[in-house]
Specification:
Blueprint (H helix, E strand, L loop, with lengths): L2 E4 L3 H13 L3 E7 L6 H5 L2 E6 L10 H10 L4 E3 L9 H9 L3 E2 L4 H8 L1 H10 L15 H11 L3 E5 L9 E3 L5 H16 L4 E5 L5 E9 L5 E13 L2 E7 L6 H17 L4 E9 L5 E7 L6 H8 L3 H9 L14 E8 L4 E2 L2 E3 L6 E5 L6 E2 L6 E9 L2 H14 L1 E3 L5 H8 L2 H4 L7 H6 L1
Parallel strand pairs: 1-2, 1-4, 2-3, 4-5
Antiparallel strand pairs: 6-7, 6-8, 9-10, 9-12, 10-11, 11-14, 12-13, 14-19, 15-18, 16-20, 17-19
Length: about 425
């Protein structure tokens, strides 16, 4: 590859551009009119405006992105995360136009992106799954019948979605109809698809994910796992690596089934197998994310593997250069979210030994309201969890982002909570704390 177009914005676009520079690959930024002065536009070797500030006019505009790749003679497109990163139609469009999509094939993305198909594929590969409906539904009556067969409480999910959209916990038959209508309307709005899916709801699990990589020669490896249980309304807030509540036997089983599944579906690139962990040897597949994750830095800092570099090299046809990973350190990541749009009039991001900050912010930058609220990631790493938490506490105190409201105070509160410090949390803990 001589030139890669980055079909994204913000910190992940900056992260990919940096990887391209190290690999001596030219980079092309695409941007909306709202992002004309964004950092990724200034950093890239070339930049093309692809539309207006609304995502559907720019970062979700497949034809405009393909046209930008063609006029700049880009060999490949890196989708980052979000936007079109798990869109099988876009991956297929790239394939049809002879542009390398940096990720798995459109067929695999489609297979993993639809929950019923993903479940059937994982069952065939021997991966444990949460008991759930045999198919998805458009009609309330069909979904309710499936819920009664599974037994309450159940989780109602949008079949075509993710990120907490169209998702509801339903504890009784009496509340099912109202919750179904609300969740389906949300799913239709977010994904243009009202199909719903029902599965058993686990009361106090942890959210564990396994980072895998696979190349076109059939090699696959589990690079490490992350604990992503700290979520607010199904959105990740703080992630940790390794998952310190996971016993060694269960960890090894998770690795083995993740690698086998990747090989069975002929996966290529980076991927993340997400599980609910309910105790020793009790874990269940939720979904597979067919892209680089927001929280990839904590795996990089505990494995010494540059995941974006590896992702690009796999797309270039190189084999995975290692058969095992020497894991060390403990790392945690806090997502800094903007609560308001506005101009950054003061900025100091933390640094120093054991601290990494991924962001596209600069003083004077105007944070638009059109996109995801995450504006920075602060990552701390140390020999153990206690030391990493202490470093994160100091880093958050040091951070200054003036001109807009952020969640910095909330993050500071969370990591100072006694239950967090002793790791006595689950996927519902943060919602309870926020309320």
């Amino acid at each position: 590859m001589k030139k890669i177009l980055i079909a994204n914005r913000g910190e992940i676009a900056v992260r990919i551009i940096r990887a391209c520079k190290i690999l001596d690959i030219l980079s092309v930024a695409v941007y909306s009119t709202a992002d004309k002065s964004a950092m990724h536009v200034a950093m890239a070797d070339e930049a093309v405006c692809i539309g207006g500030p609304n995502p559907e006019d720019s970062y979700l505009n497949q034809d405009s992105i393909i046209a930008a790749a063609q006029i700049t003679h880009a060999d490949a497109i890196h989708p980052g995360y979000g936007f079109l990163s798990e869109n099988a139609d876009f991956a297929k469009l790239c394939e049809d136009q002879g542009i390398k999509f940096i990720g798995p094939s459109s067929e695999v993305i489609s297979m993993m992106g639809e929950k019923e198909s993903a479940r059937k594929t994982m069952i065939k590969a021997g991966v444990p799954v949460i008991p759930g409906s045999a198919s998805d539904f458009l009609q309330f009556s069909d979904a309710k019948k499936a819920a009664e067969e599974i037994g309450y409480p159940v989780m109602l999910k949008a079949s075509a979605g993710g990120g907490g959209k169209g998702m509801r916990v339903i504890k009784s038959a009496q509340e099912f109809e109202n919750q179904f209508d609300l969740a389906q309307a949300e799913a239709q709005s977010a994904f243009g698809d009202g199909h719903m899916y029902v599965e058993r709801y686990l009361e106090h699990p942890r959210h564990i994910e396994v980072q895998v990589a696979a190349d076109q020669y059939g090699n696959a490896i589990a690079i490490g796992e992350r604990d992503c249980s700290l979520q607010q309304r199904h959105q990740k807030v703080i992630e940790e690596a390794p998952a310190s509540t996971l016993d060694d036997k269960t960890r090894q089983e998770m690795y083995e089934v993740s690698v086998k599944a990747a090989q069975d579906i002929e996966y290529e690139g980076l991927g993340t197998m997400e599980f609910l962990f309910d105790g020793p040897e009790e874990f269940y597949f939720m979904e597979m994310n067919t892209r680089v994750q927001v929280e990839h830095p904590i795996t990089e800092l505990t494995s010494d593997v540059d995941l974006v570099d590896l992702q690009i090299k796999i797309a270039q046809g190189e084999p995975i250069p290692f058969a095992e990973i020497d894991k060390h350190n403990f790392a945690l990541e806090c997502r800094i979210n903007a609560k308001t749009a506005g101009k950054i009039d003061a900025l100091h991001l933390p640094a120093g030994h054991g601290i990494r900050t991924d962001s596209a912010l600069y003083q004077g930058y105007f944070v638009p309201s059109n996109y995801d609220s995450m504006i920075a990631k602060i990552i701390s790493f140390a020999p153990d969890r206690e030391a990493a938490i202490k470093q994160m506490s100091e880093a958050l105190e040091e951070t200054v982002i003036g001109g807009i409201k952020t969640n910095l105070d909330f993050l500071t509160q969370v990591i100072d909570e006694p239950d967090y410090k002793i790791n006595h949390t689950d996927i519902s803990w943060l919602d309870k704390l926020a309320n």
